[in-house]
């Protein structure tokens, strides 16, 4: 079985292998030739079919048709170029800014915050079209200090404004957002409460109508004046410039010295007449006695105002209903101003911010007013409707911790302006 092959056998096997290879190569070449011929035949058939189809439909490819196709293509291209140019122009167009800034109004006194009493349909709609910040706080719960913080973007420790006649934050006025926006070409209007002397501001604001202190000091209610003056600004503004409108409502701040305390417009007196406003569970003598010693028992301003406003059930109902009426009036005024923005066709390019200078005790801890670092005093509403906001964020609630010092940087960011070097907040848009 294992007998070695002789030379003759090896030659025969080699010859047989060579013959087999020749047969394989010949068969392969024949197959490939047939495949190529078949492919050529299929190609010829496809071309012939297309030629027959073109012949049958030769009118479709007439000169008139081809000219129309070319014209349509050019028109579509031009339309796309115009749309791209429009979008590019809109992106470069500076955003308008409207700030609604109310007084003595805490975080839960708007409808979307869950209150079952006060009605604020306009602010609620802004929240649905934008974003509501649930944990927004002022850094210092005092009217003029909070306002100095708003415009300077600084903590009180830095701007050092302790009293209205001590407007030390004016030292950094050249870094305030009104000044920086003015330098960026914005047309600016201030309406309502300022709370300081005019100082260096007169050259910054193109439209200036400042007043506060009472609700019905003349023929018109202060909130109605805020509304009408804001609309006047919008109507008078130059249409070729971006604008900033700061509407600072006096309401629902009390009219100090007036025994009525809160004086709504006659048209609002029917509001809340058929409801009972719940009294805070901590509106008790026990809660007052549990406060720290430095509240100076009996001499505390918050306690004094509590006795004037909230120490009796009937008095509490009367005061709170008028307070809520003032809030609903501010909400209505915001709605009329927004309507004017829509009439002018600028609403879709306008950042709208609603917030307040501080919160307010509604009898909690047996106190009235603000000043103290409880939630009722420092936590305030913040609603922003921003045209830049992604669709998936519209109508959402932001539970992150934000502060009043953030607004200066946020406003400047919307305008594409770098914040002042001494500002301490962040852009939360």
TrEMBL record:
Give a yes or no for keyword Isomerase in this entry.
Answer: no
According to the UniProt record, where is the region Disordered?
A: 72-91
Q: Which residues form the Sulfatase N-terminal domain?
A: 96-417
Keyword check for Coiled coil, yes or no. yes
InterPro entries reported for this sequence: Alkaline_phosphatase_core_sf, Sulfatase_N
| Top-level taxonomic group | Eukaryota
Keyword list, A-Z: Coiled coil
Q: Give the Pfam families listed for this entry.
A: Sulfatase (PF00884)
Annotated coiled-coil positions are 10-64
Give the record's family classification: Belongs to the sulfatase family.
UniProt-recorded name of the protein: Sulfatase N-terminal domain-containing protein
What organism is this sequence from?
Answer: Grammatophora oceanica
Taxon lineage:
Eukaryota, Sar, Stramenopiles, Ochrophyta, Bacillariophyta
């Amino acid at each position: 079985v294992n007998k070695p092959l002789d030379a003759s056998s090896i030659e025969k096997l080699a010859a047989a292998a060579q013959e087999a290879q020749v047969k394989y190569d010949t068969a392969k070449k024949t197959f490939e030739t047939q495949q190529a011929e078949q492919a050529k035949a299929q190609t010829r058939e496809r071309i012939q079919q297309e030629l027959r189809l073109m012949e049958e439909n030769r009118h479709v490819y007439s000169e008139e048709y081809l000219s129309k196709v070319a014209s349509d293509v050019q028109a579509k291209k031009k339309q796309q170029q115009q749309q791209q140019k429009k979008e590019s122009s809109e992106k470069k167009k500076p955003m308008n800014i409207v700030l609604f800034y109310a007084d003595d109004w805490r975080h839960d006194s708007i409808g979307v915050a869950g209150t079952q009493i006060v009605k604020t349909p306009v602010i609620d709609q802004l929240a649905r079209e934008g974003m509501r910040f649930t944990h927004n706080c002022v850094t210092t719960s005092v009217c003029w200090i909070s306002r100095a913080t708003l415009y300077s973007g600084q903590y009180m420790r830095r701007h050092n404004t302790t009293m209205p006649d001590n407007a030390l934050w004016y030292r950094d006025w050249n870094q305030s957002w009104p000044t920086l926006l003015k330098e960026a070409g914005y047309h600016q209007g201030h309406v309502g409460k300022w709370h300081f002397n005019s100082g260096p501001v007169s050259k910054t604001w193109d439209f200036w109508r400042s007043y506060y202190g009472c609700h019905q000091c003349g023929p018109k209610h202060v909130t109605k004046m805020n509304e009408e003056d804001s609309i006047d600004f919008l109507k008078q503004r130059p249409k070729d410039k971006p604008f900033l409108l700061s509407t600072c409502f006096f309401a629902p701040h009390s009219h100090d010295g007036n025994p009525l305390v809160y004086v709504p417009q006659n048209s609002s007196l029917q509001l809340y007449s058929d409801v009972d406003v719940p009294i805070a569970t901590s509106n008790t003598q026990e809660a007052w006695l549990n406060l720290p010693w430095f509240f100076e028992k009996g001499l505390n301003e918050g306690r004094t105002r509590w006795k004037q406003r909230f120490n009796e059930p009937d008095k509490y109902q009367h005061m709170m209903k008028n307070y809520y009426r003032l809030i609903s009036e501010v909400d209505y005024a915001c709605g009329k101003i927004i309507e004017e923005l829509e009439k002018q066709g600028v609403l879709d390019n306008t950042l709208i911010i609603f917030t307040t200078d501080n919160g307010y005790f509604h009898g909690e801890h047996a106190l009235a007013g603000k000043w103290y670092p409880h939630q009722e005093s420092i936590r305030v509403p913040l609603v922003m409707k921003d045209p830049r906001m992604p669709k998936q964020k519209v109508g959402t609630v932001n539970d992150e911790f934000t502060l009043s010092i953030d607004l200066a940087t946020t406003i400047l960011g919307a305008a594409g302006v770098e914040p002042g070097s001494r500002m301490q907040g962040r852009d939360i848009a």
